Amino acid sequence: MKRPILIHPDPRLKKMCATLPDVDDRIRKLAEDMLETMYDAPGIGLAAPQIGVLDRIIVMDCVKDEDEALNPMVLINPEIIAASEETNVYEEGCLSIPDQFAEVTRPKQVQVRWMDLNGSEQTQEFDGLWATCVQHEIDHLNGKLFIDYLGAMKRQMITRKMQKLKRDIARGKEA
Ligand code: NI
Q1: How many CB atoms lie within 10 A of CB 83?
Q2: Among 36, 68, 137, 174, which one carries the catalytic annotation?
Q3: Count of structural domains within the chain
Q4: In-domain check, residue 5
Q5: Which domain does 110 fall in, by range?
Q6: 146: CA distance to ligand 1 center in Å?
Q7: Please, what is the average pLDDT of the chain?
Q8: Does a structural domain hold residue 56?
Q9: Ligand 1: centre distance to CA 155 (Å)
Q10: pLDDT at site 74
């Protein structure tokens, strides 16, 4: 089931999310809904707080080539355990900040540990776009958005645009 994506600014996007003790039916359904919501948007990553659920779970699929098979990933309680000194700059966007993009510098490679949907521990190294995406999504679990890496002026400009967008959406719904 597709779920509505919260638009910044929203207090739920600024919260520290809770660690999940184990995987149950609620989490399996949540992961399924998050993947459906992400693919529908479409986006390459989604974190639970973006649909208003304050749990540490993210989904992603950074396969861009349409001829390539889908590679949906579900990461529960993801943690960065190592990061390269070498950095990478990507023009980032966010489903909670539609149509706004800005360059963000992050480590080029990161090693991440998480719990999968079977409750097993996984560790994997991510590189390139996958590395940027996993760091962006883990930030969401700590109440951090990509615009928090920008200067105050740019961040305020984007936030004002989003406030206007939300007002327009609210008006549209009334009409
Ligand atoms: Ni995002």
Answers
A1: 16
A2: 137
A3: 1
A4: no
A5: 11-170
A6: 7
A7: 96
A8: yes
A9: 14
A10: 98
Give me the residue label for tokens 């396969």.
63
**Does the pLDDT value for residue 120 go beyond 90?**
yes
- Checking if the pLDDT of 57 tops 70, the result is yes
Q: Determine the Cα angle at 39 with ends 123 and 73, to 5°.
A: 10
CATH of the domain at 126: 3.90.45.10
Which residue reads 């991510």 in tokens?
Answer: 126
State the distance from the centre of ligand 1 to the C-alpha of 134, rounded, in angstroms. Answer: 10
In a domain, 148, yes or no: yes
Query: Tokens representing 169?
Result: 């959406």
Q: What is the pLDDT of residue 174?
A: 65
From the CA of 173, how far away is ligand 1's center (Å)? 24
Question: Which 3 state secondary structure label does DSSP give 39?
Answer: helix
pLDDT at 66 over 90: no
Q: Is residue 1 part of a domain?
A: no
| Residue 137 a catalytic site member | yes
Across 82-106, average pLDDT: 97
Under a CB-based contact definition with an 8 Å cutoff, are residues 150 and 102 in contact? yes
